[in-house]
Amino acid sequence: MKLFPFLRPLLEFAVAVCAIVFGLRFITGFFTQASKVYRPNFLRQFYLLFWPLLCMSVGLPFLISFFYLGTLSAYELVLLTAMAALILGFSVPALILHAQYYARNLRTTLVFDPKQNRLEVYEGPVLIPFSKRDLQKVEYITCRSKRLFWSNYNLLRLHLSTGEVLTLTSLLTNLAPVAEFLRNSNLEHRQRWFCFA
Fold first, then answer.
1. Which of 6, 8, 113, 166 could form a disulfide with 158 if both were Cys (CB 3.0 to 4.6 A apart)?
2. Where in the numbering of this chain does the PH domain appear (predicted)?
């Protein structure tokens, strides 16, 4: 810890901020009803990015050793390269998917209330009009594995009769209830290793 004296206060500050955010969210949860309007928000992004960012924050200080490349033995270089491959192999795909989903659904708002038979998609302030009978096909794409950092990244593609394709990503909400709601709309469930939008 002598090499990074500034790291401890930063970690303490991060833990304090997270505790305050989750504490406020827990307390306000008693006074609010379940939301039916979904947008990319901080808590959803934090939920999806927690493990990739934790892996990067634990592993990146070790990767600073690459700056001392001339002083490393062959054994240390092999271990460092294996660790770098492991850290980047687990984190980078999730970060790429997150960036892609964020760019895709940054301005998207999903209004979903199955009890009222309501499913609406807004791009910015503009409602995209469609009903269930306008859906020619619905693709629900999920990850093959449930144990990878990017397993929670999935998407729904709604193919409308007008030829337009609406893409809803897991950055908005958990899409399993939406897929269940649309199960009678020619739903196709596909599994991939990486659910690119």
1. 166
2. 37-180
Asked whether residue 32 is domain-assigned, the answer is: no
Residues (pLDDT < 70) of the chain are 1-7, 10, 24, 26-35, 65-70, 197
Domain count, the chain: 1
Q: Can you give the residue range of the structural domain that contains 112? A: 41-197
171 occurs within a structural domain: yes
Residue 55, Cβ neighbours under 10 Å: how many? Answer: 19
**In this structure, is residue 31 part of a structural domain?**
no
Full-model pTM: 0.75
75 belongs to a structural domain: yes
Dihedral over Cα of 35, 41, 43, 49: its sign: positive
